[in-house]
């Protein structure tokens, strides 16, 4: 069965639009990866400040292989550079911020030249195995 990775990103209200813009600009970073099955960015409506980044993979090995890919590494190197630049400019460190996005890196860490650093202030990676799955049943 497939493996699901959910990255729960803590996003302050003032960074929500920026986070969504960065994901929109991710331009297929993960979609062409072998074993990739599905992606969704879920916006919270009430009761939480956590966005959920949902990806489904054919196997844990496929996910791990993607994490070690050049594309993944390049995106995270750019995110780290943007976060470091902002930290130096403002005199503040950002803790783990989006560097903790190690689970997925679908572009939310990429500053795309804006030098704004991370849009999220923290994240958790959750892993699940798909035990049952169903889609819409046609009548």
UniProtKB/TrEMBL annotation:
<dbReference type="InterPro" id="IPR007138">
    <property type="entry name" value="ABM_dom"/>
</dbReference>
<dbReference type="Pfam" id="PF03992">
    <property type="entry name" value="ABM"/>
</dbReference>
<feature type="compositionally biased region" description="Low complexity">
    <location>
        <begin position="78"/>
        <end position="91"/>
    </location>
</feature>
<protein>
    <submittedName>
        <fullName>Antibiotic biosynthesis monooxygenase family protein</fullName>
        <ecNumber>1.14.-.-</ecNumber>
    </submittedName>
</protein>
<dbReference type="GO" id="GO:0004497">
    <property type="term" value="F:monooxygenase activity"/>
</dbReference>
<keyword id="KW-0503">Monooxygenase</keyword>
<feature type="domain" description="ABM">
    <location>
        <begin position="3"/>
        <end position="93"/>
    </location>
</feature>
<feature type="compositionally biased region" description="Gly residues">
    <location>
        <begin position="104"/>
        <end position="116"/>
    </location>
</feature>
<keyword id="KW-0560">Oxidoreductase</keyword>
<feature type="compositionally biased region" description="Polar residues">
    <location>
        <begin position="130"/>
        <end position="139"/>
    </location>
</feature>
<dbReference type="InterPro" id="IPR011008">
    <property type="entry name" value="Dimeric_a/b-barrel"/>
</dbReference>
<dbReference type="InterPro" id="IPR050404">
    <property type="entry name" value="Heme-degrading_MO"/>
</dbReference>
<feature type="region of interest" description="Disordered">
    <location>
        <begin position="65"/>
        <end position="139"/>
    </location>
</feature>
